[in-house]
């Protein structure tokens, strides 16, 4: 029996379609999600829904993606011997009539993806967003991550690490966090969302860093003022972007950060970078030297009296090359730090990205690293 397209269940599923479209998921996946709302066929309502989305996407500079989706939509409806809405044909004709030069210009412009973390019914509600089951993060990303723009792309481990942060807010609330290789800055936005005390985002590529700062501003994180200000909040999260090439980072510079938690997503990828990455991690994991309490500020003195917890690093990674990962483990063993696979223990409570078929959560592993 075909599903009732106007039922509450179908309406809720349309949120998945919308989220997939805004995240610019592969068009096949977006169409498949729409079929789940309608019992398998592509109805007039589904066509109208896509048409309205594509009009808005075109106005926001994402015309190339909208064109691909409408082409797929028209093909699917015609294969079913269905009737394509006039508005859909007309909108697609507008894209087809655009000049090739204009299309090439648009293809070279970075686009904005909207990543929606959807909290299921009955789940906990984040303290920073108590009345919402949805967190939408706009991110400016590269259209082609295979041509030297990898730092401006969204990677599976970054999605996993973001789900991890949102699933375990108590681990990060009021903690000082630093991320190595922050890329588009999505994990940092999630850390601020769960009210980490301080968030330091780092990257060794200046173009990536500039893009990250734009993303922070789009998410109401002003890295220049280093403060996140949300209406009604009584406290702020300090946020800072730092240029931190692993090869040249000095011990004195790294010792100044004094984080409680270190994070990294997809940073185990290049064998030549591994010694530099491990040197940075070791320095960040090292406890700061004891100081005379009388010389400390009141806040630091209270922390010193209570005893500072050991610093821990959470590294999410897809193991694409076994030799590279084994080289990483060998270096870890030599540097007097320990590593534990905590994927099973600390997997995200919920699938917060249920609409994202391109994201294979099972391919990502989460590691905890600490000093021995």
From TrEMBL:
PANTHER family assigned to the protein according to its UniProt record, in alphabetical order: HEPATOCELLULAR CARCINOMA-ASSOCIATED ANTIGEN (PTHR14614), PROTEIN-LYSINE N-METHYLTRANSFERASE EEF2KMT (PTHR14614:SF130)
Protein name: FAM86 N-terminal domain-containing protein
Native species: Arabis alpina
